[in-house]
Amino acid sequence: MKFPTTFTLRQISDIIKTDYVGDPNFPVLGMNEIHVVKEGDIVFVDHPKYYGKALDSKATIILINKKVDCPKGKALLISDDPFRDFNILSDYFRPFKPSDATISPSAKIGEGTIIQPNVFIGNNVVIGDNCIIHANVSIYDNCILGDGVTIHSGTVLGADAFYYKNRPEGFDKLLSGGRVVLGNNVDIGALCTIDRGVTGDTTIGEGSKLDNQVQVGHDTVIGKKCLIASQTGIAGCVVIEDEVTLWGQVGIISGITIGKKAVVLAQSGIGKSLEGGKSYLGSPAEEARIKIRQMAYLKEIPSILKKNGNK
Q1: How, if at all, do strands 27-31 and 2-8 pair?
Q2: Cα-flanking dihedrals φ and ψ of residue 88, to 5°?
Q3: Active-site residues: which are they?
């Protein structure tokens, strides 16, 4: 999330009421999660396991719950609760704004685009030319749709990220201020749910096609010309490169990459990154040719046991 204008370290410190280390006029351009940070961004870290990763990241302002040596060219915001203060900043720069119309007056809808009855379009949504948005679709604030996009009934674009911190009193939600961005000629089936990024974008590339009942988690990036079949569940922060095919009921854990032109067969569970250009099967997923051979061997076990005198 980029701020509407450059802020200073002191100004950010005043918003969240924290101490800081660095030049009070140090420029702050935005805020993001660790996997998408750029120079000028704030990143938060609240666990010693990830201090080094945050301090060494591209972020130049680290919101942290311990006084540490400040890396050269960076600044620190010292907080007793970085998660809470990151939420304060999200709410400050992108607060929830209730809609007072089914189609927001601030939405921009391109020429030749058809909006069917009972569609909700939120604030600052941009929809390109020659799109078809079918009945009962909900498009939350700030979503961006390219040209020639089709979205079928019951789909929701831009719901909040499924991201919580477990506190003694219950689960504390990380606020979502990101967007969903669809490229040109993307088709989304019925009853799909595409969650927005926490601070960045959940992106589906040009020409990709999603079947019905597909879940895409926050900050996931899906490349161009991908095919994703029904009941596939993709967790947050996944990278799916171009021309990947995911067949029905595939489940994918967060934070991994699936390489270009990979094919994942139905009901597979993916718990680690996969190389491109290969076919995969099973849970945990392995190369399909290896998994099929293993399954054939398993079928031989009863006959082997019987041959060796076991009932």
Answers
A1: antiparallel
A2: -60, -40
A3: 218
